[in-house]
Amino acid sequence: MTGALAGTLPILAVWAGGWALNAWLARFDTRLTRILVAAIFGITVIVLWEMIVRIYRVPTVILPAPGQIAASFAANTAILWTDFVQTIVKGALTGWLIGAAAAILTAIAIDRSPFLQRGLLPIGNFVAALPIVGIAPILVMWFGFDWQSKAAVVVVMVFFPILVNMVAGLAATDAMQRDLMATWAAPYGASLWKLRLPAAMPFLFNGLKITTTLALIGAIVAEFFGSPTHGMGFRISTAVGRLDLPLVWAEILVAAIAGTLFYGLVALIEKKVTFWHPSQRA
Amino acid sequence: MTEALARGPFVRALRRGAGGRTLPVLTVLLAIGIVWYVAAIGMNAQWVRDQAARSDTELSIPAFIGQTLTLDRPVLPAPHQVAAGLWDGLAGQKITSKRSLVYHGWMTLSATLAGFAMGSLAGMVLAIGIVHSRAMDQSVMPWAVASQTVPILAIAPMVIVVFASAGVTGLLPKAIIAAWLSFFPVLVGMVKGLRTPDAMQLDLMRSWSASARQVFWRLRLPSSMPYLFASLKVGVAAALVGTIVGELPAGASSGLGARLLSGSYYGQTVQIWAALFTAAALAALLVATISLIERLTLTRMGLAR
Asked: What residues form the membrane-spanning segments (chain A) (predicted)?
C-alpha cells in the first residue's frame, strides 16, 4: 500500500508540473506557445505512460511501455517497411487514387442531370454511412489475398464520401456566376473547367481528407479476412496471437505516422490548390 | 378519361416525385437492381459453365440463367437469394438460435449502443472542458485531431486480446472500440457548436450579468444542439463500424462481424450478404432514430428550420 502510494506521488507531480506549465503558456496564445503546449501535453502523456507501466509493473501483454515499443520499432524496421509497402503504398494508396478518380469522374458525369443528382445523392449519403468495411470478405474472395483485394475495398470505401462532396461542390456556384459564364457564351466544357471545377475544389478536398484515414482502415481491416504473409493487418493479427504487443504497437505507430503524413500531404495540396478560399486565407 | 387521369392524384404524385426525390431515388435503385442481376449472371457464369461441361450437358439460355441465379455458393448472390437469406435469418430461426440474425444483430447493437453512449458522453464532457479552459483547448485539441489519423480499427484486435487476457470478454471490449470511434465526431461538433454564440450574444449575456454557468446553460448549450445532433449521427454510424470490426478478430462467436468472418471462412456468400444488409439496416435505423430525436428536440426548443 505504501509502495503504491509512493508510486503515485511522482506520477501526480509530473502531471501537475506539465499542466501548470501548459496553463501558464496557454495565456500567451501565440503560434509558438500553441505548438509548445501541444508538444508538452504529448510528452507528458508519454512520460506518464512510461512511469505508470514501470512503477506498477503493468504486464507487457496488457500495455507495453513507450520504451519497449520504440525498441521493437527499431529492431523490426525491415518487417515494418515491407508491411508498410504492402498495405499502405500498394493497398491503401492505389485504392484511394482509383476510388477518388472514379468518384470525381462519376460526379462530373451526373452533374448535367439534376434527375440523377436527386436520385443518387440520398443513396450516396446513405451508403457513405453504412459499415462498408463489411464488404471486405466478399472482395477478398473475388480479388484474391494479395493487395488487389485491399485496394478494391479501399476503392469502394472512399468512393461515396468523395462522390457526395464532389457533387455538392459542382453545384456550389451561384446563379450570378453561371449567368456570367452564359453571357460570355461559354460552352459546357469551359464553364466546367474554368468555373465549376475550381469552385468544387474546397468540397472535393474535404472529401479527400476525410477518406485518407478510411483508406488506411479499409486496407488494414481487409487483411483480417485473408492476406499474404506480410502486411500490417496480417502482422497485427499474428503478433496479437503471439502476445508480441510491442510489435503490434510499433505497427500502430507506423499506421499513425503514415496516416498523419497522408492527411498532411492532402492538406498541403489543398492549401496550394484552394489558396483563394476564405478558409485558407484566415 | 385522359383528362381525368392527368388531374388525378396519381399523376400529381408522380409529378411531385419527379420534382422531388422519390422518383429519382426509385429509378436509381431500380438501375442498381438490374445491374446487380446482370452482374450476378455474369460472375456466376463460369461456375455454371464448368458444371455443365463436367456433366456433359448442353444448357439452354433460360436454364443457364436460372442456374446462375440459384447457386448454393454463388460468387455474387442475386438480390432475391440475399432476401431469402435475410428472411431466413430474421424470421426463420428462433431468436436465441446461433443462426438467427436477430440474435447476432442484437449482440452488435447492444455493444454499439453502450459504446456510443460512452463515447458521445466523453466527447461532450471534453468539449465543455475545452470551451472553458484555454490550456485544455491547446493541449488536448491537437492530439484529439492527431488521434484520428491513427486507423483506430487497427487497434481493435489488440483491445480485444488485451481485455481477454485480463479476463474481460463480451460486450465491454467491443463497446470501447465503438466509444473511441464515436468520441471524435461528437467532440469536434460539440466544440464547434458551443462556440457558435457570437460576441454580440455573449455581450448581451454579460450585460444581464449572467454567471458563467448561466451563459453555458441558457446560451451555449442550446445553440450547440444542431451541431451536436449532426455529429451524433456520424458518431453512431462510426460506433457500429467499430463494433463490427471489433467482432472480427480473436474468434468472436457472436455478432454481425462474427457472421461475416465465419461466412468468409466457409465460403457462405449468402450469409455474408445477409449479415451485411442487416448491418446496413441497423445503421440506417440508428441514424433515423437520432434524426427523430433531433427533430423532436429542436422543435421543442424552437430551433427547427
From this structure: 30-49, 93-111, 123-145, 151-172, 203-227, 247-269
